[in-house]
């Protein structure tokens, strides 16, 4: 049995972390039995979530987790991929993890209009006396991380342009197919869904949600995965 350590559900999604949602989605798509445990991030092997336990082994980092889980997938659950499709999927997954997910993080934590709603949503469990300090410290860490990544150095038109380019790539690969590479899902659907669902269902007012509306096939694909694999209503 796989034990998945992740954050609790919030923001109207199974998980507000694109990386946690990515892993849980793959487990469901692949038909792998698992159990969820809500765990503080500092207890992870690298101080982050998600991570999984397989017996005595703890495995961190979402891509490493998917590498580990892929051979455990139930027969006929996943789409067989050509070498070209695997290469395309690999690039899409990296783009989702290192571009789209960072855009999402920036917009949640560092856009002035969005920040008050983010602060309210993410820190309600913190005692009110220290809540402003804890929220400010976390926002400072996100600002430092985004600056180091590079997304924090972009001006708004540059971020919007890159977001559109990324979404266009995923939209073009998906086309009118049920999943990125055919009638069945692959790990790359899970990777892209983790962040796109967080944009599509965002309740905080992030700017990228409006941009995503220009790609109706991505919105429909995201909603279908939520319905079929998580039983979430449309």
Automatic annotation (TrEMBL):
Domain Metaxin glutathione S-transferase: 164-225
The Thioredoxin-like fold domain, residue ranges: 18-112
Origin: domain of life: Bacteria
PANTHER family: FAILED AXON CONNECTIONS-RELATED (PTHR12289:SF41), METAXIN RELATED (PTHR12289)
Stated name of the protein: Glutathione S-transferase
Annotated source species: Pokkaliibacter plantistimulans
């Amino acid at each position: 049995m796989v034990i998945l350590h992740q954050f609790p559900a919030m923001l109207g999604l199974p998980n507000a972390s694109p990386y946690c949602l990515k892993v849980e989605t793959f487990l469901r798509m692949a038909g792998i039995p698992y159990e969820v445990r809500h765990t503080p991030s500092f207890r992870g092997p690298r101080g982050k979530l998600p991570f999984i336990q397989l017996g005595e082994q703890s495995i961190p980092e979402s891509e490493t987790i998917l590498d580990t889980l892929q051979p455990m997938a139930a027969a006929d659950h996943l789409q067989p991929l050509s070498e070209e499709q695997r290469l395309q999927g690999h690039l899409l997954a990296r783009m989702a993890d290192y571009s789209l997910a960072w855009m999402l993080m920036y917009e949640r934590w560092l856009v002035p209009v969005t920040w008050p709603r983010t602060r309210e949503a993410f820190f309600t469990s913190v005692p009110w006396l220290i809540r402003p300090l804890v929220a400010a410290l976390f926002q400072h860490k996100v600002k430092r991380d985004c600056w180091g990544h590079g997304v924090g150095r972009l001006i708004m038109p540059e971020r919007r342009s890159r977001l559109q380019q990324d979404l266009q790539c995923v939209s073009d690969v998906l086309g009118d197919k049920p999943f990125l590479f055919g009638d069945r899902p692959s790990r790359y659907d899970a990777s892209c869904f983790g962040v796109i669902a967080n944009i599509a269902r965002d309740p905080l007012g992030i700017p990228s949600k409006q941009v995503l509306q220009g790609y109706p096939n991505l919105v429909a694909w995201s909603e279908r995965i939520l319905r079929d694999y998580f039983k979430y209503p449309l």
